[in-house]
Amino acid sequence: MISAFGSRQFLIFMLTGGVAAGGNFGSRILFSQWMGYSAAIVLAYLVGMTMAFILARLFVFKDGSRSLHQSAMYFVLVNAVAVVQTWAVSVGLAHFLLPAMGVTRFVHEIAHAVGVVVPVFTSYLGHKHLSFR
């Protein structure tokens, strides 16, 4: 299973995921102009998830045998787990750990960036074995 993280497919997943993460991160900053941090994280995650699905289907898992509908259903399921990871890490860092460490600048940005990165490995395995199998 660990060897999967050294594959070309994982590298492409990381690249396309980076693009989607950029969409997630940027839209969170935009959404934060009109709503609270926690709600903005969830909505931004939906933006990133939509981008990730399209890019993964086109460039990473293009040989999958599932239908578009099946892939989308499993993709949402895998990402439901990942959004909980992202939210918990982001909020935990922003409200507890970073302030306890004395970090006062860019707290939400640092916390959210770490939160977006955390589910990369679990998401790859979930998408490889469920979403786009």
From TrEMBL:
What does the UniProt keyword field contain? Membrane, Transmembrane, Transmembrane helix
Q: What is its main location?
A: membrane
Q: Which residues form the GtrA/DPMS transmembrane domain?
A: 13-132
What is the superkingdom listed in this entry's lineage? Answer: Bacteria
Membrane topology, as annotated: Multi-pass membrane protein
Q: Which InterPro entries match?
A: GtrA_DPMS_TM
The answer to whether UniProt assigns keyword Cell division to this entry is no
Q: Is Membrane one of the keywords UniProt gives this record?
A: yes
Pfam families noted in UniProt = GtrA_DPMS_TM
Write out the annotated subcellular location: Membrane
- Mark the transmembrane ranges: 12-31, 37-60, 72-98
- Protein's name according to its UniProt entry: GtrA family protein
Q: Lineage from the top down?
A: Bacteria, Pseudomonadati, Pseudomonadota, Betaproteobacteria, Burkholderiales
